[in-house]
């Protein structure tokens, strides 16, 4: 697996959960300083996250930090860079200018702290962000884009997300990511914790729409996320068949064992299918 697929949120004011999260089976951890933390606990959460980041086993799973977009932004970024976070989740990102500003802040912080370049994943959570998705996806440091679906639904005035209410938004962000030539977007977190079959089905549907990976808010979602992300045995066999025929043809046009035409686009789909294996 070349890229993490499952990202597990952990509230930044619950340090007793940080270490447990890294051994939960997730591919990456997201220590959340934003929505999961009450206003009164922002400062103490930042200290707890920084303390843990400095002491963690860096050979373990990658750990990102979701920062606050407002007055706490600089303090959050300073802590994240100084303490060695593997990346930044940037909520409420409405435009390219926000990414440019964060890029300048991170560049200064990395130079001061002697840290490597920090990737960013912006969350699109408003109508403005959605309209500006192509510019956001092509912004500096952007590794992949996400949708904050509950916030976006509230801003758009659509009903609770139970079906296709956000279908256009999802497809728009997938297309924006493809146009920017970045990794496909990460499928959004869901409040569904105790219905694994529903969570797995939704994850598989989002994968079919072009998303790559899933954010989870509880360890109980991880197994269902993996099941929904993973290709079936038949899909794996078909992908291997496609790539074997394509390679045998010298990466030119070929046919698979069923006589179907294979070109580079078909091979790309097959590679992406295999990238979802665990």
TrEMBL record:
A GO MF term: magnesium ion binding
Signal peptide: none
The organism's place on the tree of life at top rank: Bacteria
Cofactor dependency: Mg(2+)
Chain positions recorded as Mg(2+) binding sites: 125, 151
UniProt-listed GO biological process terms: oxaloacetate metabolic process
Positions of the HpcH/HpaI aldolase/citrate lyase domain: 7-219
Keywords: Lyase, Magnesium, Metal-binding
PANTHER family linked to this entry: HPCH_HPAI ALDOLASE_CITRATE LYASE DOMAIN-CONTAINING PROTEIN, LYASE BETA SUBUNIT, PUTATIVE (AFU_ORTHOLOGUE AFUA_4G13030)-RELATED
Protein name, entry field: Citrate lyase subunit beta
Organism: Gordonia alkanivorans CGMCC 6845
Organismal lineage: Bacteria, Bacillati, Actinomycetota, Actinomycetes, Mycobacteriales
């Amino acid at each position: 697996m070349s890229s993490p697929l499952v990202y597990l949120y952990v509230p930044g004011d619950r340090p007793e959960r940080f270490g447990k999260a890294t051994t939960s089976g997730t591919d990456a951890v997201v220590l959340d300083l934003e929505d999961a933390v009450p206003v009164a606990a922002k400062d103490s959460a930042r200290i707890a996250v920084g303390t843990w980041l400095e002491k963690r086993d860096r050979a373990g799973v990658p750990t990102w930090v979701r920062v606050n977009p407002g007055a706490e932004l600089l303090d959050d970024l300073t802590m994240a860079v100084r303490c060695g976070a593997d990346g930044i989740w940037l909520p409420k990102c409405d435009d390219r200018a926000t990414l440019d500003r964060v890029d300048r802040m991170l560049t200064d912080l990395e130079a001061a702290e002697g840290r490597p370049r920090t990737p960013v994943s912006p969350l699109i959570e408003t109508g403005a962000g959605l309209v500006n998705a192509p510019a956001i996806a092509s912004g500096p440091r952007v590794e992949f884009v996400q949708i904050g679906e509950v916030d976006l639904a509230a801003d758009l005035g659509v009903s609770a997300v139970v079906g296709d209410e956000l279908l256009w938004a999802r497809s728009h962000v997938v297309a924006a990511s493809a146009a920017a030539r970045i990794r496909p977007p990460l499928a959004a977190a869901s409040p569904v914790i105790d219905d694994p079959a529903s969570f797995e089905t939704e994850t598989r549907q989002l994968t079919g729409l072009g998303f790559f990976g899933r954010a989870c808010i509880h360890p109980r979602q991880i197994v269902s996320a993996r099941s929904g992300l993973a290709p079936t045995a038949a899909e794996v066999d078909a992908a291997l068949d496609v790539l074997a025929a394509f390679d045998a043809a010298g990466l030119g046009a070929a046919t698979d064992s069923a006589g179907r035409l294979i070109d580079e686009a078909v091979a790309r789909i097959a590679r992406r299918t295999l990238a979802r294996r665990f």
